[in-house]
């Protein structure tokens, strides 16, 4: 994330706003910048922007119809290395 992502969240009627930058759609970096506002300093965290891959309308290969669980296996394997 860059400082611009956090700057884009500054509100006029609130401290921060959860809204896309004017003229652009919301993105992973904007979402992460928003969540960052609620994380205490020194806490390791990650924002997994998996909404677009979180569900499938049809079964294809190893991807099931419905909730795909995309990213969960990768996250679990990574967490195992952190313990």
Overview of this protein structure:
By secondary structure, the protein is mostly helical. Helix content is 30%, strand content 5%. It contains three helices and two strands, in the order ααββα. A two-stranded antiparallel sheet has the order 1-2.
SSE layout:
Blueprint: H1 3-7, H2 28-36, E1 55-56, E2 66-67, H3 72-82
Antiparallel strand pairs: 1-2
Keywords:
single chain; 83 residues; mainly alpha; two-stranded antiparallel ribbon; 3 helices; 30% helix
Q: SSE order, as H and E?
A: HHEEH
| Low-confidence runs of at least 5 consecutive residues | none
Helix-strand makeup class: mainly alpha
Instruction: Work out the helicity level.
Output: 25-40%
Q: If you compute it from the alpha carbons, what radius of gyration comes out, rounded to the nearest whole angstrom?
A: 16 Å
Report the mean per-residue pLDDT as an integer.
Answer: 82
Number of domains: 2
Strand percentage:
under 5%
The number of helical elements comes to 3
Shape: flat
| Ends apart, CA distance between termini | 26 Å
Count of distinct strands: 2
Largest sheet: 2 strands, antiparallel
Strands side by side in the biggest sheet: 1-2
């Amino acid at each position: 994330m860059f400082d611009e992502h956090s700057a884009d969240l500054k509100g006029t009627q609130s401290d921060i706003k959860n809204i896309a930058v004017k003229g652009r759609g919301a993105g992973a970096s904007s979402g992460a910048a928003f969540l960052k506002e609620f994380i205490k300093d020194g806490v390791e965290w990650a924002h997994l922007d998996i909404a677009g891959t979180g569900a499938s309308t049809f079964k294809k290969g190893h991807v099931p119809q419905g909730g795909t669980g995309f990213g969960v296996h990768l996250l679990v394997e990574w967490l195992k290395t952190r313990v």
